[in-house]
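User: Structure tokens for this complex, please. No commentary.
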Amino acid sequence: MAAASIVASSFSSACSSLLTISSSSSSFATTAQSLSPSALKFIALRKGVLLKHKTLLSYSSDSRHKGREALKHNSCVCQAAGSAEIYLYGACVTSWKSMDGKDLLFVRPDAVFNGIKPISGGIPHCFPQFGPGEIQQHGFARNVTWNLLSTENQAGSPSVTLDIEESEYSQSMWGHAFKATYKVALEAERLRTELIIKNTDTRPFFFTTALHTYFSASIGGVSVKGLKGCRTLNKDPDPKNPIPGVEERDSVTFPAFVDCMYLNSPEELLLENGLGDRISIKNKGWTDAVLWNPYLTMEASYNDFVCVENAKLDKVHLQPGESWEAKQVISVV
Ligand SMILES: O=P(O)(O)OC[C@H]1O[C@H](O)[C@H](O)[C@@H](O)[C@@H]1O
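Assistant:
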């Protein structure tokens, strides 16, 4: 799409770029913004038409989230029926607001938006490795800038599609050619994501992966239902040597530190976030789940979020030309 390619080329050198998608009954807008120390570039699309493209010469960097507030301040997006923000850096969805304007995702107060480390919050990717292992914790997909491939507005559901391929940086730690394609679509009271990993190499490879979703919460009131009977690998106390077990509770709560992997989890989990919201987390292809709350190891913020992560913890083996695909839909129920 022409407008999308303008967005991509305008922002290729930027250190941090943001897409905002929003929907309402009568209008649709996608904006892409980019921040560099001296210039903020801004593009707004409405019904697929390029509306604005301008460069602002300064921004304030003194907000808690270094640049995030400045970016939001300069966006012009209708939020009547929900909205979502996606950074090209890490293809990280940093905000998903429902109709009433409440943000159901959480960004940690220690998050930075300067491209120096992964954005700590929202929905970061873990790829091509979940957790510790041969390469850096949670892989590299969360700390590289993705390309904006296209934007769409299908039946009032705005979406963006991003991708990454191997680079000198990725090959310095994982020597394979691949393509990861990630689509994020905003629907009424739902956020849908689709991830496709393709082996574009001449040799087979394997990977593990996850969507490390941070939900806004009041941890004392949080419960996750749907995991009873699952085999577990408890990463507490040693993430490198998880302890096997079986989940026996109907409803998992968070009275202390939690870091646990659930194998062959169901296609739907129900999260009560302790703030009055009941959130359905559905998936296809994400066969496992991870629950994490750092408790007092992150004293400043542990009370305000819970991570419920769709994951693929068994190695996915792909032959040359093969693809793996998984979908997640989160919705307020
Ligand atoms: O600090 P990060 O690298 O983002 O990882 C944060 C957490 O992610 C997952 O939930 C893992 O299960 C945890 O062991 C890890 O501490």
